[in-house]
Amino acid sequence: MVSRRNFLGGAGAVTAAVSAAAVSKVAMAALPEPVLQTSPDTMPPLLPSTGRPYNPVVTLNGWTLPWRMNHGVKEFHLVAEPVVREMSPGFKAHLWGYNGQSPGPTIEVVEGDRVRIFVTNKLPEHTSIHWHGQRLPNGMDGVAGLNQPAIPSGKTFVYEFVARRPGTFMYHPHADEMTQMAMGMMGFWITHPKQKHPLIDEVDRDFVFLLNAYDIDPGAYTPKIMTMLDFNLWSWNSRVFPGIDTLNVRKNDKVRIRIGNLTMTNHPIHLHGHEFLVTGTDGGPTPKSTRWYEVTTDVAVGQMRQIEFLADEEGDWAFHCHKSHHTMNAMGHDVPTMIGVDHRQVVKQITKLVPDYMVMAERGMADMAEMTMPLPDNTAPMMTGDGPFGSVEMGGMFTMVKVRKDQKPGDYKNPGWFKHPPGTVAYEWTGALAEPARFKAESAGAMPAKNMPATDIEVQVRKPVRGGGGHAGH
Ligand SMILES: [Cu+2]
């Protein structure tokens, strides 16, 4: 729901109220009314009501900022402020963002538009906005100290420039950048082409999201801003699975997805079931001769990537970062690997001291998704998400592209789980297994088993088999 300025809810309200008081009411009255978003839902595409027409994008778990047309200039009003962001159901973070949410709203304009952006600072410290990737006058580039004085708390600055080249851009502070980006200040910017462009195809669905990361201790609300690499929440638009909406499309839709990376590491983004082309980068549309099909594309820090594919296979297709630690939620990374270790003697000793002691990960980590160890009040389970066949055992940067033949054009609603045609789901085999095929060399005894190096160290292990594998043979 988009609401007008009246949002000061949640525990971030104290800081917000204090700094908001510093912004004069008279000054605000002359500005375009700042539009606020209080919900983390995906807003349907915002069709342009004034200015040149274009096909709007859909921001995953986000929204597009409406503008006011003032003598041919598109005027937007961004308010930098503390926000409460629901990162997944039941888990809220106290972030900094724009107009009620983190990330801020997507700004959509058309190539050649003159754009004026009012930026009101309701943070407890100064800020600025850098318009990442844009051609603009040097003094509008937003690097505090270099291109402009920083915007003090309580003040409003104006940025104005012509959106010169079509493409995919981002915006973020360039003042106390480490803190402000770790707190969630960022947003997306799309400049649509003003006419048919030889390198920019029209598509049926056009999705955008930012890659961002947070380090929030389980039970806490505020990110640890000093973290450089070991983040525990890998998010898309400040949401973690199962909080990230699915990308719902109609079969045979041409789909574009634009991704920007404002974390501190690269993310190989992987789509199941389809091949895509990288049709655009931070520098604009890619020449056709440079495009090749892929199923994974790496998005490095500070980059934008635009992928396109024909959604011609029905189903619920996983779409995620391929770094497996990035499809996990809050977890410690210093836990030793326990696979194959028989804890039973140790557990007996420990439970004398700690009655509720629970052994983790002696058969792998999959049990983590189902186990019932109590979590602190405010956090996201490490891996979770119920699918039609059980736990999906994922977190973080994971969602699905849902392709359906009966999804209506322009309908972005989640169609539910895919109904598989009979005989098209992997199933348990209960018949006899055929003799394994062997290579000739193996049967000729290239390395007979009796010559295998023996070990005289007795290791207490159990096979990692569900249902407590036997101890026989030791
Ligand atoms: Cu990643």
Automatic annotation (TrEMBL):
This is Copper oxidase. The keyword Acetylation does not apply. The lineage of its organism: Bacteria, Pseudomonadati, Pseudomonadota, Betaproteobacteria, Burkholderiales. GO terms for cellular component: periplasmic space. GO terms for molecular function: copper ion binding; oxidoreductase activity. Pfam families: Cu-oxidase_2, Cu-oxidase_3. The keyword Metal-binding applies. It comes from Aquariibacter albus. Residues 1-29 form the signal peptide. It is found in: Periplasm. Keywords: Metal-binding, Oxidoreductase, Signal. InterPro entries: Cu-oxidase-like_N, Cu-oxidase_C, Cu-oxidase_fam, Cu_oxidase_Cu_BS, Cupredoxin, TAT_signal. Residues 90-195, 221-336 form the Plastocyanin-like domain.
